[in-house]
């Protein structure tokens, strides 16, 4: 006789604290078997087998497994196609319900729908909950029931709708986990990956940084950002905990958390943005897409110190300061006239905190192709940005040690020329009758 159980499927919610889907699973009628699936459809696309994100996830899962050991249970881990994994689990257990938290990315929606349809035929319920956002896919809509496409209006409605119960943490009761003898989680080697220099540390909300976030966030040399991007990406910290802390400590950081949710809503309601411009007319821009230029940008050899510092920081650490992300993105799209999708794909490979919605939203913002109302002729001046945010060149000197030496390359393109070329190219593409 197979034992009747419920499964909880960890995904972008790698924590016990305030995990809504997990809380619901543990309140149900059957013992809970927690699982994590290394989705081969995602992992097989990663060319670098020393990917820090895979190592990060693996370390977090190891910690979860050790915590479960204290309650005489384990985290069962798998590598493969999720639907096939569930079919295998059905041979081991009499599964009653599968619990998880919702994911809003196009691949995840398609995957979950196929799993839901498969399980429905076997009378197994698939229950997904809102957890990684404060407001779900259709919670924030205009009066005509259509989604907001302007951040300021979205943020206003978001703040109006927010009430204290929205931030109440879910309680977790460990006694409902199925008792299973301890076993190790699947190894990195079994996944085809290798350890990296990544070291997982439990995320903390640092009042010293967040209280002054609005004053210091734009200065890359200060290292005064929260460093919580990767934790929000993989759910090692609760968004409710972050929002509650932001309301108490800093309105500007709260606005950043709302931006995160805004871009998730855009991706959910307008999934075409994953491949194309939010505004379709911008798909007509004739990008230069010079591969040599892209290589110089990618390797931090453009001759623009603030751009090169950002790209080298990214390549060496998997992190880039947010202000610098805007500068390097604008430079690629406007100065070099290289398709924003090239830059988006490169950062998707390199960023430890890569999130499709935020990465896509910010790249389209920089390229002027997204839902931002700013006109296409916004072109960041790297020199002005340096003067404002790295006046003493501390950040530049940290990442570009040969700066101001004969070994540092000359600017690959002159700023005034590049700006005028970009504006002209955009203008002619958007108004072909006037060119």
From TrEMBL:
**What keywords are assigned to this protein?**
Chromophore, FAD, Flavoprotein
Q: Which GO terms describe its biological process?
A: nucleobase-containing compound metabolic process; response to light stimulus; response to stress
GO molecular-function terms, A-Z: deoxyribodipyrimidine photo-lyase activity; DNA binding; FAD binding
Family, as annotated: Belongs to the DNA photolyase family.
Q: What positions belong to coiled-coil segments?
A: none
Q: Which chain positions carry the site (Electron transfer via tryptophanyl radical)?
A: 287, 340, 363
Where does this protein hold FAD?
A: 213, 253, 256-263, 353-355
Its required cofactor(s), as named, are: (6R)-5,10-methylene-5,6,7,8-tetrahydrofolate; FAD
- Cited InterPro entries: Crypto/Photolyase_FAD-like_sf, Crypto/Photolyase_N_sf, Cryptochr/Photolyase_FAD-bd, Cryptochrome/DNA_photolyase_1, DNA_photolyase_1_CS_C, DNA_photolyase_N, Rossmann-like_a/b/a_fold
Q: What is this protein called?
A: DNA photolyase family protein
Cofactor remark: Binds 1 FAD per subunit.
Q: Where is the Photolyase/cryptochrome alpha/beta domain?
A: 4-134
User: Is Nucleotidyltransferase one of the keywords UniProt gives this record?
Assistant: no
Q: Which Pfam families match?
A: DNA_photolyase, FAD_binding_7
Determine if Flavoprotein is one of this entry's keywords.
yes
């Amino acid at each position: 006789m197979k034992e009747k159980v419920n499964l909880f499927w960890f995904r972008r919610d790698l924590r016990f604290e305030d995990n809504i889907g997990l809380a619901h699973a543990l309140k149900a009628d059957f013992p809970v078997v927690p699982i994590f699936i290394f989705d081969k459809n995602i992992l097989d696309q990663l060319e670098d087998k020393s990917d820090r994100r895979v190592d990060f996830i693996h370390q977090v899962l190891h910690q979860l497994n050790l915590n479960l050991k204290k309650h005489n249970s384990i985290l069962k881990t798998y590598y493969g196609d999720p639907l096939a994994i569930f079919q295998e689990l059905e041979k081991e257990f009499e599964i009653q319900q599968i619990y998880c938290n919702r994911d809003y990315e196009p691949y995840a929606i398609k995957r979950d729908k196929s799993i839901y349809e498969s399980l429905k035929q076997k009378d197994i319920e698939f229950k997904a909950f809102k957890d990684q956002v404060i407001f779900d896919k259709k919670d924030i809509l205009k009066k005509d029931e259509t989604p907001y496409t302007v951040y300021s209006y979205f943020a206003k409605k978001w703040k109006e709708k927010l009430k204290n119960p929205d931030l109440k943490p879910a309680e977790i009761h460990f006694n409902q986990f199925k008792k299973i003898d301890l076993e190790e989680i699947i190894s990195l080697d079994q996944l085809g990956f290798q350890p990296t220099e990544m070291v997982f540390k439990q995320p903390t909300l640092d009042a010293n940084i967040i209280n002054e976030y609005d004053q210091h966030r734009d200065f890359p040399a200060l290292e005064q950002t929260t460093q919580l991007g990767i934790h929000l990406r993989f759910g090692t910290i609760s968004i409710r905990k972050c929002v509650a802390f932001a309301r108490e400590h800093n309105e500007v950081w709260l606005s950043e958390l709302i931006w995160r949710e805004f871009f998730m809503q855009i991706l959910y309601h307008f999934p075409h943005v994953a491949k194309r411009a939010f505004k379709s007319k911008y798909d007509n821009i004739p990008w230069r897409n010079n591969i040599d230029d892209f290589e110089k940008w990618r390797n931090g050899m453009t001759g623009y110190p603030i751009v090169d510092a950002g790209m080298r920081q990214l390549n060496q650490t998997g992190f880039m300061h947010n202000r610098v992300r805007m500068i390097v993105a604008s430079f690629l799209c406007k100065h070099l006239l290289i398709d924003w999708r090239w830059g988006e794909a490169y950062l998707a490979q390199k960023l430890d905190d890569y999130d499709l919605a935020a990465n896509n939203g910010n790249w389209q913002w920089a390229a002027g192709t997204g839902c931002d109302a700013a006109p296409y002729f916004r072109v960041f001046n790297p020199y002005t940005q340096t003067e404002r945010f790295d006046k003493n060149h501390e950040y530049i000197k940290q990442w570009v040690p040969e700066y101001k030496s004969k070994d540092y390359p000359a600017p690959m393109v002159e700023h005034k020329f590049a700006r005028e070329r970009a504006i002209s190219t955009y203008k002619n593409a958007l108004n072909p009758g006037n060119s």
